[in-house]
Amino acid sequence: MLNFLQGFSYGLFLSCIPWFIIGLLNPRLAVPTLEPSRWQVVLRYWLLLPGAAFLLWLTSLWGGFGPTLGGWLAGLAAVAVALPVERWWHRWRARRAERRRQAAAAAADRAESERGVARLNPDAPPADADDLVKALCRAKGVLLAAECRQHAGQADRLYSRYRRLQGLLDRRFGEGELAAQRGHAVVREVVAAATERLQAIAAQAEGLASLDEAYARRRLDAAEDVDQTEIAALQRRLQLIAETRARLDRMASQNETALTALDELAIALARLDTSKPRHAVSTEQALLELQRFLDRTDDYTHSARRAEGQ
User: Fold this and answer.
1) If you average pLDDT over every residue of the chain, what do you get?
2) How many CB atoms sit inside 10 A of residue 217's CB?
């Protein structure tokens, strides 16, 4: 066994030379990490593996000098066999880390989301989804792709309120009643305006994702190596990023106001007196609440159009 290890150490040491040359020419061929570099080649084939081969050779001398041919061949082939195994191991670790990151992000989203909010799947809208729900799914998909999760949750909240109010209106009023028709129209108008704002947020967030803020700040930190023209361009880029984020926050705030108004309508519907016969229910009160809500909705719609025109 010691003779085999002695031969293995000789073969491993000799194999480091061609692998070192190959790695200097193309690190991806000689280093199994996901982002190989030449310093890793030097560390691996100039220090670590030769050092390991030397220690193995020293410890194998207890059995005398007599390297075997099998040990030589095994040492020469060791790196070629180990590289694919190490690459698989690094890829497996990267996939596991990505799954954990996605699970943590999903858990954080659930923790931050409102209780009782249904979650939309951008790739698989609900079977009974209408055009508004499909538009919300598309907007959420774009926001998630742009890593704008803080605004993507509004799609779920709008969808939940939209479905809940539709159900409340259908349960509170009979089919064909004026209050139900007006209520459905108002809810749809509010959700449509909020969906348009969310689509605008998604479009601008997609453009914002292409701007590398960290790069601009690094270049500004090295101001002695950057001329004044580039400094002005980098500062303008950072200003553009800040202005876009402020605009996204304003539109998101308008959507929050719309969500609050939808909640007010849901509470108003829940307070309707249903203990009396249907014809004696305070329909006029419900219509008045809906009319007031419709007036507020007009304000939200005008605000959204002004924000989109900026």
Assistant:
1) 78
2) 12
Is the same domain home to 136 and 242?
yes
Q: Give the max Cα distance, the chain.
A: 108
Q: What is the pLDDT, as a whole number, of residue 89?
A: 92
Residue 118 Rama label (left phi>0; alpha psi -120 to 50; beta) = beta
Q: How far is it, in rounded angstroms, from Cα 268 to Cα 260?
A: 12
Domain edge (last residue) among 110, 132, 158: 110
- Last residue in a domain, options 82, 110, 138: 110
Query: CA 169, CA 171: separation in Å to the nearest integer?
Result: 5
Structure tokens at 180: 């139900």
Q: Do 94 and 144 sit in the same domain of this protein?
A: no
The pLDDT tens digits for 111-166 are 445 555 778 888 888 888 888 889 889 988 888 888 777 788 888 888 888 888 88
Top pLDDT among 227 and 88 is at 88
Print the domain residue range for 81. 2-110
> How far apart, in Å, are the Cα atoms of 226 and each of 11, 98, 218, 233, 242?
51, 37, 11, 11, 22
> Which residues fall within 8 angstroms of residue 146, CB to CB, at 6 or more apart?
202, 205, 206, 208, 209
How many of the other CB atoms lie within 10 Å of CB of 173?
22
Q: Are 73 and 5 in contact (CB under 8 A)?
A: no
